[in-house]
Records
---
Amino acid sequence: LAVSPRNPDVLWVGTDDGALWVTKDGGREWVNVWDKLGLPGPRFDGTIEASRFADGRAYVAIDGHRNDDDACYLLATQDFGQTWTRLGGTTVEGWAHCLREDLKNEDLLFAGTELAPWASLDQGKTWHRLRGANLPTVAIQDFAIHPTAGEIVAATHGRSLWLLDISALRQITP
């Protein structure tokens, strides 16, 4: 479930069996936009992120490993789910668990996969693996971005939490 930080009447809901719903009127009318994603079949919605920078923009991470599909599905819409763009192509390794937009820089995105954390400085066109001396190859389940400290916390599977100062990333332009 994701509520738009720009408009509380815009809500997104995803399921674990291949449905992705959006409402623009606070829940009176829902539209299932799953078939517009262009995926090979039902998959698990890992996360949905409604943009804090643009109306109609949202991001989803789709996990297909339960369907013997190890592809990384990171997608974005600019028009409330009517069209979708696949982000990063095949650059990002590991099936997707989460996709988050930075709180301060709309071009900065973070993806968590089965193998690593990733960052994009250009709204998902290109991706760079985030590496740290104290972070082995590990599944990143989700991210929390601190609103004032300039830090991101990655929730891992088996390695607890990992903290990274992202203030320098926020200043880099594509």
---
Amino acid sequence: AGDGWDAVNAVYDNPPESTEQVIHPDAYPDEEPVAVAVPDRSNDRYERFDLERETNTLGEATIYAMFWANDVVPENHSTYDYDQRLSAGGGGDTVVPYRGTDGEDAYVWRSTWDSTADAREFLAGYRAVLDEHGARARGDGVYVIESGPYADAFRVVRRGETVTVVNAPTVDDLDAVHARR
């Protein structure tokens, strides 16, 4: 604010590390993204791939875009605003892709949130995305989309401030990709 070009130069020297820091300037530079680990719980039918990258992160902007593109943003946005409750409050996330022995793809997406309330907001939004695509709840956080471009099985579980989404071609494949613990 009052530092003029020195402040601009300081940001070039230490750029934001996350879209959260761009969307919410008050989070920069102190609120750094959290590294989210996804332990490999796959069996011999699935294996991780694309491990050349240290992390595969979506971030707040992409999470917002997912909600906006699927018509579940609760506010009336005519253009991307990015600052809204379903995607705000993210601490960090990681997506790990898997490939099955039959060539089918799957993934585990784990996100951490600043609070349990933020995790609940995200979970409600994610379930609304599944609903938008005709998902049927099977119980215990499992959903199935029977047809269309997103036809797959999903397990969505919140534990405190962490939400884990497991995606696989069938309900039986969910544990093959990421066994419950």
---
Amino acid sequence: MKIVNNLSRRLWNIGFCDYTPEELIKNRSLRAIKWMRHPYKDRWFADPFLFKVTDNAITVFVEEYSYSTRKGIICELEIDRKSMKLCQRRELLSLNTHLSYPIWIRSEGRVYMYPENGEANLLTMYEYNEETHKLIKPKVILNDAVADSSIIKCGGGYYLVATKYPNTEKELYLYTSHCFDGPYVLVSNDPVQTDWSHSRPGGKWFSIDSQLYRPAQNCRGGYGRNLSIMSTTISESSMSETECFKIEPHSFKYNLGLHTINFLDGICVIDGHGYKYPVMGRVLDLMRKLHS
């Protein structure tokens, strides 16, 4: 049974392509993805957020999930742009609770990260020290158990959207603050989204020709099945959205889902969900379904 479970094991990985938000909106699909190559057999990487792009390397913040501890930590990865090999891994944050979704924001030349930590029933923002590669000065910006929070500056204020525990895949809530680092307060007790196919955030907002877009996870039929790109309008007390299109996984190995997309300096990063051994994984899962 242990061998069977290993052969059908599922994992996540991150991948890259040369692509801009404008190209995504125009083409409504992604180019071929180049997947990161790394030596680790005891963990996987997901929830990527691009931090720095040079001619030779890509730096990205990720969730690193360990099979042994069964929880995520936050890491910084440096990847060779030509070979897609992982060159350097730095651990940024590890707590007793599960961490994921290392989204960040820049303000007055400083970088701040606010990763998901819903198990702790709060959302904490850290300043990121680029010289020491450390997260410092933790500050609680929201006393609520939320998932995949995403902040955007709009008009004269800041807005944060997130789903709430325990129903993290269906109901999306809107929070607001006068400052980027909170505190954030709930705009309404009513969710602004209640659709499984486009509620939970799936990456940073982006703007094209003054139109705001929000990547959202499609969890209908399974967590992180694919992504919905939402056209979004925010006011002081409400948010309205229209789904533009969906992005489907199209990799042979990572065909089971994708749930995060981000852009920086002409590079697009996504994550992909698939079998560790794609052929055997498909066969064994099919056999399970036939015998169930």
